[in-house]
Amino acid sequence: MTDERYLKRTILKETVASRYLPEGSRSLRIFLPPGYNELLSYPVVYCQDGEDFFNFGRVATTATKLILDEGLEPFIIVGVDVDKKVRTEEYAPDGSRHEAYLRFFAEELLPYIESKYPVRRDPEHRLLAGDSLGGTVSLHLAISYPELFTRVMSLSGAFYASSQSIVGNCYDLSWLSIYMIVGLQEDAYETDRGVYDFIALNRNTRALLEHKDAVIFYEEKDGKHQWGFWQQEIPQALRYFIEVE
């Protein structure tokens, strides 16, 4: 039976205007932690695929449990929605909307959140989180804006050749802290770009990141390329980045 305390959550829906995105705006959902107080300041987790993170990843319930039961420092979650029809174009580094999305995220979304909510503005208190291509775009956001983002949570990142090439061309990634997990049943997953071995993609990317001196947590475990696997992994990933009070 679910504890009632976990269900008393504050989740707001917002829309942020954009000069860069063709639609002119983007929908957000924002989780405010238990005991939220505008006079305090909070770490913030930015989730790609915002709707999925909240609905399938149950990230708000997980965050509430971690804060109430395990004493994790309260944090705010910003879920950034995406239109699945253009998701690959936005999230993949060779996608037609990728650069526009990165600029929207760094130059419009971030200032919007920081003007409206008491989130901390130093990179070590901002976490980018994503599944599959959401993990990919999170890494590329950090690489493109290292002064803004230094922490990435990647759940079965879709690190195709274009992504590996970008990482390989980086000079020094010692400032980057990345949490990577991948499922052992992801060795032949069919995507909109073909069938890929996600274990190999993640192993190769890990090796490239290690070569550039990134700080890496890496784990392979039983799991498929789906939210049933990722949902179970979110608590550990959040514990890795969010400190106990």
UniProtKB/TrEMBL annotation:
One Pfam family it belongs to: Esterase
Keywords recorded for this protein, A-Z: Hydrolase
Coiled coil: none
GO molecular function: hydrolase activity
PANTHER family (alphabetical): ENTEROCHELIN ESTERASE-RELATED (PTHR48098), IRON(III) ENTEROBACTIN ESTERASE (PTHR48098:SF3)
The protein, known as: Alpha/beta hydrolase-fold protein
Organism: Paenibacillus soyae
